[in-house]
Design goal:
Number of strands: 2
Oligomer: single chain
Radius of gyration: 14 Å
Strand order of the largest sheet: 1-2
Shape: globular
Structural class: mainly alpha
Helix content: 40-55%
Strand content: under 5%
Length: about 90
C-alpha cells in the first residue's frame, strides 16, 4: 500500500521493496490533480505487476469479464472499485 500524501510505502510482501507501490508515489508527484485510480493502477501494474501477477494476466481476466458482461460500462471518470473476475480482482 502506498501513502501517496506522505510518500510512504507499506509493503506486506515479505520484502522492503515493492516497486508497484513506488510507482503510485511517483505518478501522484507528477500528476496530483489527475490521479485517476484505473490509470494509476494500470501503470503501476504495467511497470511491476501486481499481487505477483503481470499485466498480461490482468488483461486476460479483464477481457474475459467484459465478454461475459457486455453491458458493463467503463468510464475513467466515474468507475470506482474493482471488477470481480472469479479468481481475484482486476
Amino acid at each position: 500500500m502506498a501513502d501517496i500524501h506522505n510518500r510512504i510505502v507499506y509493503a506486506g510482501n515479505n520484502s522492503a521493496y515493492y516497486a508497484h507501490e513506488l510507482v503510485h508515489i511517483y505518478t501522484y508527484e507528477l500528476f496530483p490533480d489527475t490521479n485517476y485510480f484505473w490509470l494509476n493502477e494500470g501503470f503501476a501494474t504495467y511497470m511491476d505487476g501486481s499481487g505477483g501477477k503481470d499485466l498480461a494476466w490482468y488483461t486476460k481476466k479483464l477481457k474475459a469479464y467484459l465478454l461475459e458482461n457486455t453491458d458493463f460500462e467503463i468510464s475513467l471518470l466515474e468507475l470506482r472499485g474493482y471488477i470481480p473476475n472469479g479468481e481475484d480482482h482486476t
